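We close this part of the discussion by returning to an individual protein. The sequence in question and its C-alpha cells are set out directly beneath this paragraph:
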Amino acid sequence: MKILKYAIFFILFIFLITGCGDKEQPKQQSPQQTQTETKPVSNIKFFKMTGFEKSTSKNTPPEFNWEEEGKKISITDFKGKVVFINFWATWCGPCKAEMPSLSKINEELKDKNFVMLGINLPEGSKIKAEDYLNTNPVSYTIIDANGQFFQAFADAAGASSEAIPTSFIINKEGKIAETIVGARDHETFKKIINKYLD
C-alpha cells in the first residue's frame, strides 16, 4: 500500500513539473523595440533660417542660409548640384501626403549630386513642424522660414505664391529651372528631377 502511495505521489510530481515547463512564457519586447515605439525621433534635421536676400535677377533663387551644427550653410554652397526645394506647412494635407515620397527620393538620389530641402511655412499652423517631424520623420533637411521668403522665391521664379505644396528645382548652374505647383507622386517627381541630373 505504501509503495502504491509513493508511486502515485511520484507520478503526480512528474506531471506537475512537466506541466509548468510547457507553459508558454509571455513575449517580451527588446529594449530596442520599446525605444522605437515610445521615444520620439531625435535625429531630425530641422533648422531655423538665419536670413535671406531677395534675388535681383530672374530665375536666380534668393540667397538664404541657416546654421547646421554650428556651421553656416548657404544655398550657394550647392552650386554644381541639383537642388529640390519644397515649400510646405503642417496644416497642408497634400504637403504632408507627398513627404514620404520625397523622403524616399532623397534616399535614392543622395549620392548623385542631389540635395533636397523642405521649407516650412509656420504661419497659421497649430502643430509645430518639429512636433510633426518627431512622429513623421523625413530623410531630408527641413528649414523653418516664413511667407515672405516663399513670396521672394516665387517672384524670382515668376510663379505664384498662393498655393502649397510648391516645389522648385535649381539646376547645376544655380538657376531656378522648374516650378511644380501641387502634390505629385513618387514616379512623377523622380522623372522631373532626373531631367536635370542627366
In short: Residues 11-41 have pLDDT under 50 and may be disordered. The CA atoms of residues 82 and 187 lie 17 Å apart. Strands lie at 46-53, 63-68, 71-74, 82-88, 114-120, 141-144, 166-170, 176-181.
